[in-house]
């Protein structure tokens, strides 16, 4: 079914909404409004449709109707362009843990993006693609000694630390390391806080600098992570300012001038213009261009979230009343929507296929409220994953135009960050989810 048959000609803005891409990030909208972005939706839809039309849930083998992703590699390229438009001075090191999809990693590598790895396996995965170890930062401040030796053997030099014990391990197993001191940040407004676990408090910086000096280690810079899903970016400003203080303190210890500032991750497309503006201001104030300091970052979700669309099959339904039902689908919090628990995400369900028709372009097929923008949604649903755990709930309350039945399909846009990377096979639901790749940048 084409878009005109659905009867919905999308304005460029609703096309932006359709992927959940930013409506605030002005530079992204300007690009998004251009034809390739509209076309991206046609191609995402075509991929979803082709796959679903090939599945008949009444006769298929077990698992043929499993949930699957469509990954638009072209979106990764657009995000990369957008990154340099907003943050031209900042070299990204993609946080592999966010989504280690091999095609995404390859595209990022070919675009010149470097990598933030946090374990031996992540380092191995990136090295196996032929990426130079210089392009990797081992950004985990608390590493197993055996992993430090692995990094040493493979010439991965850049690494972070935030405590004295780590410095002693590094002295013993990888004394050539190029070290970045990770400082704690004020992440009180972030949804995913990290400074409760990592980062040196500013009062303890001097003791670490002294230890670096005593052990004759090679300190090259400072790193931080303001947490993810922050609602206010003053934490970013404060962290850059604190980093500057550490740069100054290092001079007092007669350490060689620091050369790298690592501004971490937590960037999100929908607030990227705002966070970038704050970051540019802070950099101009404390690390102006020409100051001899290289600025790097460790974005994860920014590069993965909007590139993936998840489609899941309605496998069961419990009708509670004519207008109320519990829907059970074949993906959930133990599978690709673990981000609900681990990453505080709230995936948006939309009707994809119902009553022999596709509804991809009807981005208002569902709503979090019964009445929204003059549309009434007659069906109240809760949506559940396939495991037997009561925790496996995707949404407790949602409203739908359509009265979905087993065999129908739901899709979730923007589900590339912290999804497949942490899915488990709990309860016998295997996690080798299919990914259909498209590239909406390279096609004519
Ligand atoms: C997880 C993590 C990131 C990526 O965070 P996002 O919110 O996905 O950008 C970057 N750096 C470190 C050290 C991390 O732990």
What does this structure look like?
The protein has 444 residues and is α/β, with parallel strands linked by helices. It folds into 2 domains: 3-30 and 100-299, TIM Barrel (Alpha-Beta Barrel); 41-69 and 306-438, Beta Barrel (Lyase, Ornithine Decarboxylase, Chain A, domain 1). It has helices at 3-6, 12-19, 26-32, 35-53, 73-86, 102-111, 120-128, 145-153, 164-173, 205-215, 234-252, 272-286, 301-304, 339-342; strands at residues 68-72, 90-95, 114-117, 136-138, 158-161, 178-182, 218-223, 260-262, 294-297, 308-321, 324-329, 350-354, 357-358, 366-367, 371-372, 375-376, 379-384, 393-400, 409-412, 434-438. Strands 1, 10, 11, 12, 13, 14, 17, 18, 19 and 20 form a 10-stranded mixed sheet that branches. It has an 8-stranded parallel barrel with strand order 2-3-4-5-6-7-8-9, surrounded by 4 helices. Helix 5 (73-86) packs parallel to helix 6 (102-111), helix 9 runs parallel beside helix 10 and helix 11 runs parallel beside helix 12. It is elongated and about 75 Å long. The two termini are 21 Å apart. It is found in: Cytoplasm. This is Ornithine decarboxylase. The active site is at 388 (proton donor).
């Amino acid at each position: 079914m084409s878009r005109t048959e659905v009867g919905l000609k999308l304005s460029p803005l609703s096309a932006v909404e359709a992927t959940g891409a930013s409506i605030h990030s002005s530079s992204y909208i300007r690009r998004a409004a251009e034809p390739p972005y509209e076309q991206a939706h046609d191609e995402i839809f075509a991929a979803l449709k082709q796959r679903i039309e090939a599945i008949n849930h009444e006769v298929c083998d077990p698992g043929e109707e499993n949930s699957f992703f469509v990954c638009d590699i072209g979106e990764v390229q657009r995000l990369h362009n957008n990154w340099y438009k907003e943050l031209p001075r900042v070299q990204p090191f993609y946080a592999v843990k966010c989504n280690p999809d091999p095609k995404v990693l390859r595209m990022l590598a070919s675009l010149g993006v470097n990598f933030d790895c946090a374990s031996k396996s992540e380092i191995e995965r990136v090295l196996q693609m032929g990426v130079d170890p210089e392009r990797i930062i081992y950004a985990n401040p608390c590493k197993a000694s055996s992993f430090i030796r692995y990094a040493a053997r493979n010439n991965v030099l850049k690494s972070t630390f935030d405590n004295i014990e780590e410095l002693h391990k590094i002295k013993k197993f990888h004394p050539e390391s190029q070290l970045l001191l990770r400082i704690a940040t004020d992440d009180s407004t972030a949804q995913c806080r990290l400074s409760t676990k990592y980062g040196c408090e500013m009062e303890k910086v001097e003791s670490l600098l002294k230890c670096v000096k005593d052990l004759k280690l090679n300190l090259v810079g400072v790193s931080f992570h303001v947490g993810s899903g922050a609602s206010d970016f003053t934490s970013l400003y404060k962290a850059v300012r604190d980093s500057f203080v550490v740069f100054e303190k290092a001079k007092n210890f007669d350490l060689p001038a620091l050369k790298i500032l690592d501004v971490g991750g937590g960037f999100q497309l929908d607030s990227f213009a705002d966070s970038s503006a704050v970051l540019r201001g802070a950099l101009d104030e404390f690390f102006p261009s020409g100051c001899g300091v290289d600025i790097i970052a460790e974005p994860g979700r920014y590069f993965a979230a909007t590139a993936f669309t998840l489609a899941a099959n309605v496998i069961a339904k419990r009708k509670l009343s004519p207008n109320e039902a519990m829907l059970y689908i074949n993906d959930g919090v133990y599978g690709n929507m673990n981000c609900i628990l681990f990453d505080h995400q709230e995936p948006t369900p939309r009707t994809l296929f119902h009553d022999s028709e596709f509804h991809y372009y009807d981005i208002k097929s569902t709503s979090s409220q019964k009445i929204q923008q003059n549309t009434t949604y007659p069906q109240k649903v809760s949506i559940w994953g396939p495991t037997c755990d009561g925790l496996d709930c995707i949404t407790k309350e949602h409203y739908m135009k359509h009265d979905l039945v087993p065999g129908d399909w739901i899709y979730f846009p923007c589900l590339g960050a912290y999804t497949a990377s942490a899915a488990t096979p709990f309860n016998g639901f295997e996690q080798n989810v299919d990914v259909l790749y498209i590239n909406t940048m390279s096609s004519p």
